Amino acid sequence: MSSKTSRPKADSYRCTECGWTTIKWVGRCGECQAWGTVTEVGAVAVRTTAAGVAEFDRVLGGGIVPGAVVLVAGEPGIGKSTLLLDVAARSARAGDGHAVLYVSGEESAAQVKARAERIEAMARTLFLASETDLATVLGQIETVRPELVVVDSVQTIASGSVEGAAGNVSQVREVAAAIIAAAKSQGIAVLLVGHVTKDGSIAGPRVLEHLVDVVVAFEGERHSRLRLVRAVKNRFGPTDEVGCFDLSDVGITGLDDPSGLFLSQRAQQVPGTCVTVALEGRRPLLTEVQALVAPSAVQTPRRATSGLDPARVGMVIAVLTRRAGAPLAGQDAYLSTVGGVRVTEPAADLAVALSMASAILDRPLPPGTFAFGEVGLAGEVRPVTGPHRRLAEAARLGFTTAYVPIGVLGGGPIPEGLTVEEVPDVETAVRDAVWAGARD
After folding, report:
1. Is 345 annotated as a binding residue?
2. C-alpha angle 169/175/181, rounded to 5°?
3. Number of folded domains in the chain?
C-alpha cells in the first residue's frame, strides 16, 4: 500500500460551493452568496494509505488511515464482499511485501479463493481465513501481523466470553471492541463489514457506529449494476464524497465518470423525457427522467415510479394539475430514471414536471436541454444547492440549454456555450421549454 500525507490545512473556514475561504465562520458565503455552505477546515494533517481503488479512496478522503476502523454497511448480497476483496488484493499488491488478512465468517477459505480467482483479486501476501471465533481471529492477526484486516462480517464473529449467538447485541459490541482495540494498539487498518436491516439501519447496537472511525454505506438496487459508496461518518476526512462502481460477473470496477450511464442514447428527442443534474455528495450526475401518461382504465388513476421519490412525484403531479392546468385527471402516470440510479433530492422536481408536461402534450424538449430546481406547492421554482457545479457538468457533456431557478445567473460564471433560462414557476417552465420544442 502506498502512503501519502494529506495537505496540511490552515485554521479557516471554506465554502463548499465555490471554495472561498475566511478566517471566521459566517452564515453566508462572501463570494457566491450561498447560505449555510461555509464549514470549518481542520489544521491536522492525516497520514493516509491508498487502498488502490480510486473510488473507494475518494470516499475515505484519500485512503485508509493506519489504526483506523472502517465500518462498511450494506444489504446482504449487494457486493460488499466483492468490493473489499478487491481492495484487499490491491492493497497487498501495492504494499511492498506487507501482508493483508481477509477473514470471512460467512464463506469457507476455498469459496473466498474461488471468488478471488474469478475477479482476479489474488495476491502473494493476501491471506485468507475462515473463522467465526473472536479469539482465533485475534490470534490470526497476531501471527500474520498484517497492514490491513478485512472482517466479513462483524455479525458472524462470536466471543466465547459472552453468552448468546453471534450477531446479538452483546456479541457485536464485544467483537467490535476487541478488534478495534487490536487495531489501535498495533496500528492496523481494519475494514469491518456490517449488514443492514430492512429499514436500512445497521444491524446490531447503535454503539457500533460510535466505536468505529469511519462509516461508509454501500448502496444499490439488486437489478442494477450501479453501486454507490458514500461516507456517513469520517473522523479523518469529508463526508460529502461518493464513489461509483459497476458490479458485474467478473468483479467490481470504479467509475470515475458515471454520468453517461444514466442517459439514453437515441438519434432524436422523444416526448416525455427530461435530463436533470443530481448531486451525489459533491459529484454531479446527469440523469434522464422519463414519463409516460396514458388514459386510466380504473376509477383511481395509477401513479408508478422507479428511481424517484413517490411522495415528491405525487406533489409535482398535483402542482401541475392545479397551477399549470395539466389534464391529469383520469390519466395513469408512470415515471422512471434511466440506468437504475435513484434520485430523491428536490432538485429533480423541475425535470419531473417538464417530462410530465412533454408526455401530456406529446412534444419533445429541444435537443441539449436539461433542468433542475425544487418545485413548491404554489408552483414556484426554488433554488437548490450547487447550481454551478451542475451547470459545469452538463456543459462538459455537451448540453446547451438549462432551465433553472431565478438567481443562478448572478451567482457565478456560466460555462461557455451554455444558455441559461431562469424560470420563476412551473407554468413558465412548461411554456418556455416544451412549447419551445414545438417551435423548433
Report:
1. no
2. 130
3. 3
